Amino acid sequence: MDCIFCKIASGAIPSKKIYEDDKVIAFHDLAPQAPLHFLVIPKKHIATLNDLTEEDRLLAGHILFTAQRLAKELGCEQGFRVVMNCNELGGQTVYHIHLHVLGQRSMSWPPG
Ligand code: AMP
């Protein structure tokens, strides 16, 4: 499959990896929008949040749990932001779900 995040998950293309287990991988974003900006992705290809199925419930929780654990380990225990863009209107550009984790600066609201 021609999916850049599947290629990162398989190691076919390099990334600045932070964490990996049998279900997820976390790596630094190529174009960081905060001093700390990393992505947590499932190894399973799921194109958008709309494509989650019942069988992905535990996986979805594992992505979120991994995000908060790594954020705290990387010095963001005081606060951080998680974002998952869904489809074009939601600002998604890579069609393999990924949770953005942004930290080490204060965040404003609403997002753009
Ligand atoms: P989104 O717009 O929510 O789909 O986010 C896609 C994110 O993936 C953007 O923040 C990109 O900077 C990031 N990105 C794209 N290609 C790579 C890559 N090869 N390694 C790390 N991050 C990437």
Summarize it.
By secondary structure, this protein is of the alpha+beta class. The protein has helices spanning 4-10, 57-73, and strands spanning 17-20, 24-28, 36-42, 80-83, 99-103. The longest helix has 17 residues, at 57-73.
Structure report:
With 112 residues, the chain is α+β, with helices and mostly antiparallel strands. It has one domain (4-103): 2-Layer Sandwich (HIT family, subunit A), CATH 3.30.428. It is built from two helices and five strands, in the order H-E-E-E-H-E-E. The chain has helices at 4-10, 57-73; strands at 17-20, 24-28, 36-42, 80-83, 99-103. It has a five-stranded antiparallel sheet, with helices on one face. Strand 1 (17-20) and strand 2 (24-28) form a beta hairpin. Adenosine monophosphate (AMP) is lined by residues 4, 15, 29-31, 85, 91-94.
User: Widest sheet: strand order?
Assistant: 1-2-3-5-4
| Net shape | globular
Structural Rg:
13 Å
Task: Name the CATH homologous superfamily.
Answer: HIT-like
* Count of folded domains: 1
Structural class per helix/strand content?
alpha+beta
- Secondary structure tally, helices: 2
Biggest sheet layout:
5 strands, antiparallel
Order of helices and strands: HEEEHEE
> What is the helix fraction of residues, given as a range?
10-25%
Uncertain residue segments: none
Summarize the SSE layout with pairings:
Blueprint: H1 4-10, E1 17-20, E2 24-28, E3 36-42, H2 57-73, E4 80-83, E5 99-103
Antiparallel strand pairs: 1-2, 2-3, 3-5, 4-5
The site of adenosine monophosphate has 10 residues, from loops.
